[in-house]
Amino acid sequence: MKGFVLAIVFVAVLFLGNAFLTGGLVPGFSVSPYFLQVVSLAGINIILAVSLNLINGFTGQFSIGHAGFMAIGAYVSAYVTAAFGDRIRGAVGMLPPAFQNSVLLLIALGIAAACAAVAGFLVGVPSLRLRGDYLAIVTLGFGEIIRVFILNIDAVGGARGFSGIPRLANFAWIYLFAGATILVVSRIVRSSFGRTLVAIREDEIAAEAMGVNTTRAKVISFVVSSAMAGVAGGLFAHYLMYVHTNSFTFIKSFEIIIMIVIGGLGSITGSVLGAVLYIVLTEGLRQFAQYRMVLFSLLLIVIMIVRPQGILGHRELRSFFARRRRVEPVPPPVAG
Amino acid sequence: MRVAVEDDQSKPEEAATAVTKLINQNHVVAMLGEVSSSRSLAAAPICQANNVPMISPSSTNPRVTQVGDYIFRVCFTDPFQAEVGARIAWEILKVKKVAILSDVRNDYSVGLQTFFRQHFKGFGGEIVAEQSYSEGDSDFRAQLTQIKSANPEAIYVPGYYTEVATIARQARELGISVPLIGGDGWDSPRLWEIGGEALNGCYFSNHYSVDDPSPAVQKFVSDYKKRYNQTPDALAALGYDAARILSDAMKRAGTTRGDKVRDALLGTKDFQGVTGTITINKERNAVKPAVVLKIENGKFNYMTTVKPTGT
Fold this sequence. Notes:
heterodimer; A: 336 residues; mainly alpha; 13 helices; B: 311 residues; alpha/beta; Rossmann fold; 2 domains; 10 helices; 13 strands
């Protein structure tokens, strides 16, 4: 009951906050749309980073295909709103328009998450039986296959990109899903299933010897992570109003890996920090024009030299506040 | 006039962020860009929503200016360029049987292919073979063998210079001696570096030529060389024209207010640009001529200027 009330309060604060920031609440006050856009894109990065951390940080599997699942989510949800938008709005015609759009967005994101989850299942089942670097190679290949596949579908624009997507997502929706992602992942990690995942990360053979169905656990965590990437893709499409396959190259997958590595693998707080830091750095360095990406790379190198385990390492935010009660930290991932 | 520049790393989502920043932080009154059609499509809805006129110097895809009434371009569109290609074949080379080899993964290429077919058939010509390849391919012998067996008198290759140069080499190796015809994707000094001799006698359409004898072009080329010590390419010329058309519109509007500048841009008529006489039509596209270049021993020689028909 307490959680339910908290959730309602959280949603109310988000949507009021959104109205406040865009100038709908206090006349004459609004923040710059540029600032709001950067903050919103940071929210999408948070969903991507936290969900990838479930695979790379907690389960210890190295996936480089997150952008592929994001692409599925982006294109599927965009197709749903473009092709069936009016019919879905019509079906809930008795609601006020703002609520019609919310229903449409939720349906689109739901289908996006389902499709990304199915794709994650199809990729995960054969490749997660393997150990070592094979998953990295399979997911890298898969991400590129998805991209090229979409590039050849004319119904979603092919090489032209998918334009004319309605702007259904906003700051509040993005942070609602970012909050949900953080909640779900932290619940999973603290559950007995989460301990199973950490056991697999630490020593797969030992985990198997203890009776853990390692493939099943890995596939579940992979599918959950893929579905979340699909939601992030759907929000991305409905926020930017245009998607192109160039946004989902393997470089995007690496960007998400960079976020979780600088934040600290195996730390949810770290992933959030990494995701925010990534966008703050790339936008903050804009004033250096053509040296922007050079400085950005240098900063990444410095962070990795100073803090090889990432900024937070394996620690979580709450471990900084817990003085008396010893919070058992999740053990750090073993390199290699 | 002051210019604010932002980099978008050639990513559509970065283009959207950069444009949002320029409009809201730098308070720009108009936008010049983006170069490619996909990034222009990402930036255009934002300019449209903020009533900021946007002029793309070189996005040739028809859909860019269809985003809204604040989006303009100063380059010609793919349908017109394909018509020029068809006229090179029909009027300059005087051939009746043409084969097409296009890049199936590239919308630019597929667009040119579609419109070329339409125009060339309209003239009374015949398309004897249509083959395709994918960006990044390096072996085109299978497609070229098919084309050879159809005995075309010319081959239309609406791709980018990297693949085109290799296609030309392999075509000559297979004994295909007919000329190749292409579009502005060919425009690069690298074309000759890779293709060499194999490209002799081939034609392509482009936005402008440094050898164009018109005084406007010659003055621009010599000024540009003085300032940057480089020969200006088509993108430089188009960017220059975009900026000049914008400043001309602002002068005529007497204000930098978005809607007034937009109306003035719509009134652009017979503007003497480096890339030809430009008129903006009611679809906000540039109606302007294209130049035809013939490749001879590493030089892109100016042949003629093709003016748009109708409109």
